[in-house]
Design brief:
Blueprint lengths: L2 E12 L2 E12 L3 E5 L6 H9 L6 E6 L2 E2 L5 H8 L2 E4 L11 H5 L1 H5 L5 H14 L16 H13 L5 E5 L7 H18 L2 E6 L2 H7 L2 E6 L2 E6 L1 H4 L5 H8 L14
Helix pairs in contact: 5-6, 6-7
Length: 256
């Protein structure tokens, strides 16, 4: 199967420090890839580069054959219509009610009527297990788990072909996190979308991934299935997935 996303020799530095180092990665169409790795390993930088929010120093990022790092602003705007994003924080607009948050792209990006956009928003809320009567509430009136569901509803509102998830279960209790993991898995399959997630939560990774890749020191050092990751003989992967302090991954410590 052809790659939906193909990344080649991707490099990005900040103040002389190389965060991504000639990174290669391919994701097949309709597959869900989860990128794991410790804090500061470059997961968020990788995601921002794929989204086109950050330009790499070198390398290519092809989505359906188009290099997102070299698109014009107009072409990039067209490309984003095919992309849905669930942020680490729900990133909802406090001044808008729930349905307006869900339908934000439909209203302000595609110019749909408020009636049509609201109907689609309510439909998407139902797909993530939220009742229609929440549509008129504001984000501050919702729990953290409900806000995360609203964020997911917004991500799928335009029927995207590619979905990105940034630490989707951070800050949630284990039961709510499992609900979100199930919803992500269900919605990705229902849309037939290609999904890329970044997380350090192994429970979440195993639940939503078709494949898992580990990013360490700017490169992908291992890739395999959720079953394989727990018994992998790569010492870096083994240390990370089992949460061991001792191993080849050394945490930078500094006394106050």
């Amino acid at each position: 199967m052809a790659a939906k996303i193909a990344i080649s020799r991707l490099s990005k530095s900040f103040a002389g420090k190389r965060v991504l180092k000639d990174l290669d990665l391919e994701i097949e169409e309709g597959r869900s890839l989860v990128v794991i790795g410790g804090s500061g390993t470059g997961k968020s930088v990788l995601l921002r580069c794929i989204l086109g929010l950050m330009r790499p120093d070198r390398g290519s990022i092809l989505i359906d054959g188009d290099d997102v790092a070299r698109l014009s602003d107009y072409q990039a705007a067209l490309r984003t219509r095919q992309i849905g994003m669930l942020f680490q924080a729900p990133a909802l607009f406090d001044s808008l009610n729930v349905w307006e948050n869900v339908a934000f792209r439909l209203l302000y990006g595609e110019g749909q009527s408020r009636q049509s956009a609201r109907a689609r928003a309510v439909e998407c809320l139902g797909q993530v297990g939220l009742p229609p009567d929440l549509a008129e509430l504001h984000p501050a009136e919702l729990s953290g788990g409900m806000q995360k569901r609203v964020g997911l509803a917004r991500a799928i509102a335009a029927d995207p072909k590619v979905l990105f998830f940034d630490e989707p279960t951070t800050g949630l209790d284990p039961i709510t996190a499992d609900v979100i993991n199930n919803l992500i898995s269900e919605r990705v399959k229902a849309l037939g979308a290609t999904a890329v997630s970044i997380t350090h939560d192994m429970i979440s990774a195993k639940k939503i991934a078709d494949e898992i890749a580990m990013l360490h020191e700017g490169r992908i050092i291992w890739r395999g299935t959720p079953d394989e990751v727990m018994t992998c003989d790569n010492p870096y992967v083994d240390q990370f997935v089992h949460g061991r302090a001792d191993g080849p991954i050394k945490m930078a410590l500094r006394a106050d």
